[in-house]
């Protein structure tokens, strides 16, 4: 990690800290894109005004979108790679076939890319948190907003690290001397740190979004992510509480028709990533849509067949193209290509997930009728028969499998949900060994990058590598 973090220190200083020339054009209530100059400014000056401090935060979002691991459906993204590792996508070329075959190695480039990307973003968040401490030039209101956002980004990045790699260092400083020798922290402690950061962030942030659109976190974003984290750690009571808070916020969030879910102005969106380039869309459409023949991946036939008859999501969110004697099926949630008029942002958090989280949390607490009600909200939008009518006496274990199935067809090719669901419920072996040749239990975790092990002797490799 020393190599990564020391290298990133200079790059980060030369990017988000170089914003003084933009003071006159940046307003705290607008999300603007930043073209960064090439000169260096002392870090302390960045946190001497609301405008420059906010600019540092905005640049961090630019970094997130530029980061291939978080860039929507790009070929190095969690959506793409973990769609291959699970049972959602099939490669049509050699692109990332190691992930589809679950034959990833410590030297596989995408492994290092994912690790580096996450920790680089974490470093940026830590730099903002530290820069705000003791700053006299940033107002209390703006400081609270920026610290809340930075803590959320730090928690968000660690969440993906712990789910991909297992035990990982939880980095909360920019001191490379500390980071260079950091050891792996057990997953339960990583999650506790994530929760701690999110609770602080929730207390700091307001109900209103701090900018136009839903591209910078508000209290609702933190609450929704807390619900997910509590569900992943089996804290079902708190998962239900947090999800309920989001669901009850009907002034800001509500389910939309299926073809409006992923639009820029989606009422269902809780947190979106904005495209870095103006008049552009996210990466999902350009990666997944098949025009003549697939470039990268097609939808796994097992997923295609998992939809119930009459499921409107299959009609609205799955596309097909016939070329010669072949018919290709592909994810069609996002319907715009890169060069189409701007209409879609990459959605990271949305309301449907909150209903499914609450359904699972209630089922786990044996509140079966309430869980069925939540599940039926999602099924009703999909134009499927309601469970309360067809199977009201379902038992707990069968209901949990029904929720897993609903998550599969609702959240497919979105931020690795299917892969993480199989892992957190202990069902990777049962499901993937049946559809993947050579599947091994140790494939559930990625290997730590070999270059990190070479640099930091306090890191250890995952079993099976």
Automatic annotation (TrEMBL):
Residues 321-465 form the RagB/SusD domain. CDD domains: SusD. Residues 110-230 form the SusD-like N-terminal domain. Keywords: Cell outer membrane, Membrane, Signal. It comes from the Bacteria. Pfam families: SusD-like_3, SusD_RagB. InterPro entries: SusD-like_N, SusD_RagB_dom, TPR-like_helical_dom_sf. This is RagB/SusD family nutrient uptake outer membrane protein. It comes from Agaribacillus aureus.
């Amino acid at each position: 990690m020393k190599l990564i973090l020391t290298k990133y220190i200079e790059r980060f200083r030369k990017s988000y800290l170089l914003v003084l020339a933009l003071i006159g054009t940046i307003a705290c209530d607008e999300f603007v894109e930043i073209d960064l100059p090439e000169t260096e400014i002392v870090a302390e000056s960045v946190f001497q005004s609301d405008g420059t401090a906010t600019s540092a935060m905005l640049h961090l979002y630019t970094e997130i979108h530029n980061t291939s691991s978080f860039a929507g459906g790009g070929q190095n993204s969690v959506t793409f790679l973990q769609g291959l590792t699970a049972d959602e996508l099939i490669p049509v070329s050699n692109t990332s076939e190691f992930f589809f075959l679950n034959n990833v190695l410590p030297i596989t480039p995408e492994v290092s890319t994912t690790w580096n990307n996450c920790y680089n973003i974490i470093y940026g968040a830590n730099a903002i948190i530290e820069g705000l401490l003791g700053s006299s030039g940033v107002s209390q209101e703006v400081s609270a907003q920026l610290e809340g956002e930075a803590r959320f980004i730090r928690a968000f990045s660690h969440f993906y690290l712990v789910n991909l790699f297992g035990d990982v260092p939880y980095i909360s400083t920019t001191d490379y001397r500390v980071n260079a020798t950091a050891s792996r922290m057990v997953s339960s402690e990583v999650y506790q740190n994530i929760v701690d950061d999110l609770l602080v962030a929730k207390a700091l942030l307001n109900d209103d979004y701090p900018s136009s659109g839903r591209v910078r976190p508000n209290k609702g974003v933190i609450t929704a992510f807390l619900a997910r984290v509590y569900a992943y750690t089996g804290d079902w009571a708190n998962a239900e509480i947090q999800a309920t808070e989001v669901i009850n916020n009907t002034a800001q969030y509500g389910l939309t028709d299926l073809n409006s879910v992923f639009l820029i102005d989606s009422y269902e969106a809780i947190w979106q990533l904005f495209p870095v380039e103006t008049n552009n869309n996210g990466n999902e459409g350009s990666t997944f849509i098949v025009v003549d023949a697939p470039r990268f991946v097609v939808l796994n036939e097992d997923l295609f067949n998992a939809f119930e008859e009459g499921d409107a999501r299959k009609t609205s969110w799955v596309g097909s193209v016939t070329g010669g004697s072949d018919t290709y099926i592909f994810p069609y949630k996002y319907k715009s290509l890169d060069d189409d008029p701007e209409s879609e942002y990459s959605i990271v958090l949305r309301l449907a997930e909150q209903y499914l989280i609450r359904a699972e949390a209630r089922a786990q607490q044996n509140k079966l009728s309430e869980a069925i009600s939540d599940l039926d909200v999602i099924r009703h939008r999909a134009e499927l028969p309601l469970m309360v009518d067809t199977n009201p006496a379902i038992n707990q274990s069968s209901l949990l499998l029904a929720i897993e199935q609903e998550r599969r067809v609702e959240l497919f090719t979105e931020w690795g949900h299917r892969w993480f669901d199989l892992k957190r419920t202990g069902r990777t072996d049962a499901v993937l060994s049946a559809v993947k040749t050579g599947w091994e239990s140790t494939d559930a975790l990625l290997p730590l990058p070999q270059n990190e092990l070479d640099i930091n002797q306090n890191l250890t490799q995952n079993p099976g590598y």
